[in-house]
Amino acid sequence: MRRFEFAVDRDHARAVNEVAADLRRLRVLAYAAAVVMGLGTALLIWVNHPWSWLLAVAFAVGAVTAMFIGYWTPHRSRVDKLYAAGALVPAVVSETDGDSATLLALVDLAKPDTAGPRYALVTRTVRSLPGHSTRAGERVPAVTVRIDRAPGSVGDLWQSVSAMPIAWGTRDVATIERARDAIGEAEWKLLTDNLDLAAKVRGVDAKRLLLDPQQLPEELRG
After folding, report:
1. Cβ neighbours of residue 193 closer than 8 Å, sequence gap 6 or more
2. Which H or E run includes 45?
């Protein structure tokens, strides 16, 4: 897995990083859900019927789960940890719509023990791209954010992989250029040649489009 090391500007990331912002919102929602379920548990216990005790147990389990998510989320949302854990990948602007732009990224969905890479196209709508223009074809180096929603490891592929621009972690244009140069030209060309697939990727339920290994450039066939 290709890594990219750089000094993360936490103040900058706190202001513009949309992944970290989403995780902060998740934490707030988790704590709110824990409070609601906790109150529901207390009310059901007060009712003191056999059926209410069964529901109280379910509400209590939900409250504990929500509290755990709220507690655990800050460890996931540290931007320096997210950048350090992700793989450096290419993304390009495929289209713009008012104040937002769509990124088309090339990511490897394979888990570490899987034999060979499994490349796919994924999209991400972004509101801010500091250090970049939003014209179609703009090269945006990014890192992957991988998530498995299931409690255990299921299958050979990550259930969710998204792209987080390097520009959300630094104001330094030279750092962004260094990340861009670290990505092979074949990868950039693959994305540029397939910009029209962004709409198709957004339209599928999985929000990703697996690529046929035989149609990949030689450099990406592993």
Report:
1. none
2. helix 18-47
Count other Cβ atoms within 10 Å, centred on residue 49. Answer: 10
Residue 127 makes CB contacts below 8 A (sequence gap 6+) with: 18, 99, 100
Q: What is the distance between the alpha carbons of residues 28 and 35, in angstroms, rounded to a whole number?
A: 11
Integer Cα distance of 106 and 89 in angstroms: 6
Domain ranges of the chain: 14-80, 87-220
Residues contacting 64, CB < 8 A, separation 6+:
34
pLDDT in tens, the chain (222 residues): 799 999 999 889 888 888 776 777 777 787 888 888 888 889 888 888 888 888 888 888 888 887 777 666 655 557 888 898 889 999 999 988 878 899 999 998 887 777 778 899 999 999 889 989 889 899 999 999 876 544 444 567 777 788 999 999 999 999 999 999 999 999 999 999 999 898 888 888 777 888 888 878 877 766
Per CATH, domain 87-220 is 2.40.410.10: yes
